[in-house]
Amino acid sequence: MLKQTLLEAIQAGGVELKKFFNNEFTISHKDGVNNLVTEADHAAEAAIISAIKKNFPDHQVLAEETGQHINDSNYKWIIDPIDGTVNFAHGIPLCSVAIAIEKDGEIIMSSIYAPVLNELYFAEKGQGAFLNDKKISVSEETSVLKACLVTGFPYTYINMSNGPIEVFGRLVKKGIPVRRLGSACIDLCWVACGRFDGFYEHKLEPWDSAAGYLIVEEAGGKVTDHEGKKFSIYQHRIIATNGKIHDELLKWVRDEF
Ligand code: IPD
Ligand code: CA
Ligand code: CA
Fold first, then answer.
1. d(Cα 218, Cα 78) in Å, to the nearest integer?
2. What spatial distance separates the first Cα and last Cα of the chain, rounded to whole Å?
3. Is 83's pLDDT higher than 90?
4. Ligand 1 pocket: which of 96, 183, 185 to mutate (most atoms <8 Å of CB)?
5. 144-254 under CATH 3.40.190.80, yes or no
6. What are the C-alpha distances in Å from 57 to residues 42, 49, 53?
7. Among candidate residues 199, 191, 184, the one with its CA nearest the CA of residue 140
8. What is this structure's pTM?
9. What mean pLDDT do residues 101-122 have?
């Protein structure tokens, strides 16, 4: 029932994305001039929550646009109705719906759906990760110098030493390809299926990282914070890799060379 509801909810979100993509929709602004929220984000979030509540009215929900729906349950559904909203608003197909299920503080199942790309990712703790029902696994690359990486930048500039710009500059100056897709969820899925060897970011929220975290781990990858410690979706910094370049990428991010 949990898996069926997760898949119904992700499809319900996907229907809204497909309906609005490249069509007319209203746009408003959150913190920062380019931090957008569209009519499609609200419609997708409402459709997802209604699909969940139909089968699990007592479960907790943490959703990007409507916040916490607190209940007395050890299950929490963590929702990003559109990851890559700026892409979506510009008709760029790199956007997705992301849903993770947390039980007793651990992510046990998740899905990310990029409807315009026709890519549906699914993972269950201990059962592997899948793209359109086909098992996926991370890449075999062992060196950061030969890796293809991806990162993202927050909407509001974060004034910190060794921040996103510094790390990006350090890698790019060495000729290492570092892509910037504009969707942390797709970044994580593409590490999981081996297109990228590693991903790092400095300021993600729980709905950006929760679903992709499990998908990368179940595809055989490794996910930590920037200290190399066990990843928690409730802190901002993430490194997700194929596992083989993890310690080396940590050093590049931390400036430890
Ligand atoms: C954003 C995307 C982006 C990342 C930002 C996120 P949103 O999510 O994942 O890649 O760099 O930090 O906020 O706003 O499109 O849901
Ligand atoms: Ca997001
Ligand atoms: Ca979002």
1. 18
2. 49
3. yes
4. 183
5. yes
6. 20, 10, 4
7. 191
8. 0.97
9. 98
d(CA 184, CA 192): 12
Return d(Cα 16, Cα 84) in angstroms, integer: 15
Q: Which residue lies with its CA nearest to atom 12 of ligand 1?
A: 154
Ligand 1: atom nearest CA of 181 is 10
Using pLDDT thresholds of 50, 70 and 90, give the confidence band for residue 27: confident
Q: Where in the chain is the domain with CATH 3.40.190.80?
A: 144-254
Q: What is the CATH number of domain 2-135?
A: 3.30.540.10
In 104-160, at which residue ranges do the beta strands (DSSP E only) sit? Answer: 106-114, 119-124, 128-131, 134-135, 149-151
Letter for the amino acid at 184? Answer: A
* CB neighbourhood size of 60 (10 A): 17
Q: Do 114 and 215 contact (CB within 8 A), yes or no?
A: no
Which residues of the chain does CATH 3.30.540.10 include? 2-135
| 91 in Cβ contact with 194 (< 8 Å) | no
Does the beta carbon of 208 lie inside 6 Å of ligand 1? yes
